[in-house]
Known about the structure:
The complex is a heterodimer. Chain A is α+β, with helices and mostly antiparallel strands. Chain A has 16 helices and twelve strands. The relative contact order of chain B is 0.20. Residues about 10-25 and about 115-130 of chain B have low confidence and may be disordered. Chain B has six helices and 13 strands.
Amino acid sequence: xxxxxxxxxxxxxxxxxxxxxxxxxxxxxxxxxxxxxxxxxxxxxxxxxxxxxxxxxxxxxxxxxxxxxxxxxxxxxxxxxxxxxxxxxxxxxxxxxxxxxxxxxxxxxxxxxxxxxxxxxxxxxxxxxxxxxxxxxxxxxxxxxxxxxxxxxxxxxxxxxxxxxxxxxxxxxxxxxxxxxxxxxxxxxxxxxxxxxxxxxxxxxxxxxxxxxxxxxxxxxxxxxxxxxxxxxxxxxxxxxxxxxxxxxxxxxxxxxxxxxxxxxxxxxxxxxxxxxxxxxxxxxxxxxxxxxxxxxxxxxxxxxxxxxxxxxxxxxxxxxxxxxxxxxxxxxxxxxxxxxxxxxxxxxxxxxxxxxxxxxxxxxxxxxxxxxxxxxxxxxxxxxxxxxxxxxxxxxxxxxxxxxx
Amino acid sequence: xxxxxxxxxxxxxxxxxxxxxxxxxxxxxxxxxxxxxxxxxxxxxxxxxxxxxxxxxxxxxxxxxxxxxxxxxxxxxxxxxxxxxxxxxxxxxxxxxxxxxxxxxxxxxxxxxxxxxxxxxxxxxxxxxxxxxxxxxxxxxxxxxxxxxxxxxxxxxxxxxxxxxxxxxxxxxxxxxxxxxxxxxxxxxxxxxxxxxxxxxxxxxxxxxxxxxxxxxxxxxxxxxxxxxxxxxxxxxxxxxxxxxx
Lengths: 406, 246
């Protein structure tokens, strides 16, 4: 019996192909938008994390508690603290550990001045930890003291060319120090906040700030290691060292924590809104198609078709529309997400505007099987609820009135 | 504004006068030392008019300035009216801004660095007499004095490629030109309206013009040198006293 009803429902749908296609499209667009929304939101967070970890911060950092609260070079880890920390963490398998001495400062060319962060690095370790050497697009990677690497954006702003001399001013424990540096290379960071960072050798940074040691140790973990568990372990290992703190991605990027906290919950209003729109679109059309067929339904009941079967037929029509719409929309959505996860979405037009809040220039969408569920549950549920009223109307049909009305 | 005012700080330490001494045929280094000497001053008081012309628009300021040695400086803004009795106080490496409405604010010490930094290290070097530490100097005799070419040492913290200085025969700087590292002219400072006060000789007008045609014109009125100033005058309470007086 159900088979017959389904066949009739299917045939009914294609009596008005345009209308049906419209309904399918409504559901399809709804599911597609929800999918893309989820994929991109997760993608932003994922890309942000990956970009910062891979190119800037490493998986986690060890620094002093004082530096975490007030990032001044005078709060740097002392050489003895560094060796204690490295010893305590020797059990952690790290791909590379980069020592850094960072301080605020300025860069000056003949054409202007700009505020920057000065990062003293050990060129070899830094290349291992953040692949800085791979984003050098002009000139050479940092080699010797007296050299500086600047971002292409900064070099453009201050009209600095490769090989020219710039003066860096660094804030140290005892006032400021200005020194000349030769621009050895220009790098193009994948996110804007590294654009205002000048890379010099650890040695130069130490002598400019008058501090020994390093402001932070950046740890890069091998692929596949659980950062979360490693950080917990590092915290345990360093628990006996007062004043030394382990900072994970969220400690280093408070903005990301704010973005991620409740990001799924923040999506609910959008999902509800899109679902309602798709739902009402389908309900409206179904309702119209039922009204139009009042006389037909009257005749069918008069010749012995039960009203229960009729209303089931209307329901099945809605389910078919929703299913086709969802499968095509979902399919397209996943294709889109897959494309974006491979090729990314260049949002540098936005990042260039908002500046340094840790956004990468290119967002890679995330594709999780879980998004199906979000789109499915909401769209199908709403479409069915919305189809309930027309079906109910059919169920209450009086054959004689219906035939007359129609 | 802050930077402009701080620029004035620098210049006031430059204009402290010139000893009217002359040498027969000094070497390049000696000429430079003499020029340096002329910048060294003890105390100064004067009113400085400042016209800043940026892309055709002129902004005018009038400042009253006191300096004592290299460490102490006090600037009181006279014009524009809206900033009257606001000012800056420099105590060594510390810098304060005062406004009658908000009181005093300590500016980060980098602001001072910024000004010095932004105003051009060559002027800083001139005022501190460290010019020859950073540059190789060559001199030529001209009809009216000397022409100096200064090339910075490779590791000197100087962003310029070359400086050219014209000096009169009595060691007053007439013109200072900055070149970038590609040999293009960046900025020209012209010193004019030289007057004599006591045994000092100095330029009362300094016009700085950059490659884009933006200009800063500085005029010094009623200059006084080597006057007796109490170090206690250089404190924040002085600002408050002005506010009460007016």
